[in-house]
Amino acid sequence: MIRYYSYDLILIIQYNLFKIITSTEIANFLDGTEPAREENIQANVLHIALSEHVHYSFTMKMTNNLDKRLGERIRIERESRGWTYSDLANYSGVSRAMLHKIERGESSPTAALLGKLSGAFRLSMSTLIARAEMQKGRLSRFEDQQVWVDPETGYVRRQVSPVSELPMDVIEVTLPAGAKIHMPSSAYAFLKQLIWVMQGELMFKEGNETHSLHTGDCLELGPPSDCIFENATDLPCVYAVILIKTNGAA
Description:
Layout: H1 7-17, H2 23-30, H3 40-80, H4 85-92, H5 96-103, H6 111-120, H7 125-132, E1 147-149, E2 156-159, E3 168-175, E4 180-183, E5 191-199, E6 201-206, E7 209-214, E8 218-220, E9 227-230, E10 237-245
Antiparallel strand pairs: 1-2, 2-3, 3-10, 4-9, 5-8, 5-10, 6-7, 6-9
Helix pairs in contact: 1-3, 2-3, 3-7
């Protein structure tokens, strides 16, 4: 949970929850010398929080670069089809003003918005993101996998599978505690999908049907419909999405 917070908030948490630990003890802990006091476990939590912030900052830098490339890729997809802003707005339901901002890199697209745009282009969301800049090949190393963070919810999306000719993609998603993602039916129009919960709990609603998924559960999605991914717990939920592209999808 802390990984999605700012450094200032971590410092506030440190002051309010860890103030009984002295700065010297924390420094000793970070240097590898365990504090002798019972609050040792709290210093450990703080260490994790600070470490997660470093990872978060690096991830956000990667995401900011990807947002710019996504905007450029959306422009290329639109222009390659001979579409105007008005055309894409009509096909996707995204306003012309927002499309203009995204293409110019002035606004970061949300997960729901990318779902609408990928549906309009008849692309899977993973293909749209992958086309922004990923090298093709049979091996996808962890450090090279594309990571995108939804600016609205903190949802983290990692492209796990290589970019290849296989009609399948594997995506890892981390949904923060309390987060909710709405995805339009157009995002699933040319896809078959499986959701596999690897950690935590996920409330998934497709159309009028709601599924409560727990660690290890795997669900095959039904016909395309508006969907909601919700994490109603106090801990992050990690799940994999396996996409199988059908005829008409790229």
